[in-house]
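Could you please consider the sequence and fold following this short note?
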Amino acid sequence: MIDKFVRSMAEAMDGIRDGSTILMPGFGEVGAPNALLEGLIEQGATGLTLVINSAGRLRVPGRPPNAVARLIDLGRVRKVITSFVRANSVAGDWVRDGKLEAEVIPQGTLAERIRAAGAGIPAFFTPTGAGTLVAEGKELREYNGRPCVLEEALPGDVALIEAWMADRWGNLTYRESGQNFNPIMAMAAKLTIAQAHHVADLGQLPANHIHTPGIFVDRVLHLPVGDPELPR
């Protein structure tokens, strides 16, 4: 019987190695698997490469740093691959001090590199970034009179996913804008671990509302929140 639910955070985080590339979705705090990131902090892996849309939120007096900032501040992240690094943030301080490597990529290119990894596409050409620092050291080719940059797929060793609902086969559904990077990251990693707010029985999720099929998911940890709402 297939049952991808794990019983504890320790079981969910088991086997994540030092030096892993971690795919971390979320747009701001929406769709971010914060509980799993807290579990990664407790698990202890270090030397990580973190692929994330934004490498940590702004410093705000009186507001504690989020899990991304704490993971960086603990010295556990070697590199961030991201759309932007805020100057007034933990990541910004670490990059400025030379303690954290940052690869900054246009947001659409970041998403497409991840999607390409999940689709089995090794590389693609895009006009985004041509003629800028983004193109340095990369192959250029002209298509329809436009210079294009060769970008390679961006797979991960581990994807930490935030889902609204899951069944025991690992089928996932997301809620509204909580989808963001979650579906493409779930497909692009060797090990995909999801935190799910609600549990559905097999067959309870309408087929056309399953955003990530269970074939891409290895582990699911149920972290209850709120009242369940089935997609219509």
Notes: The chain has a mean pLDDT of 92. The two ends are 28 Å apart (CA to CA).
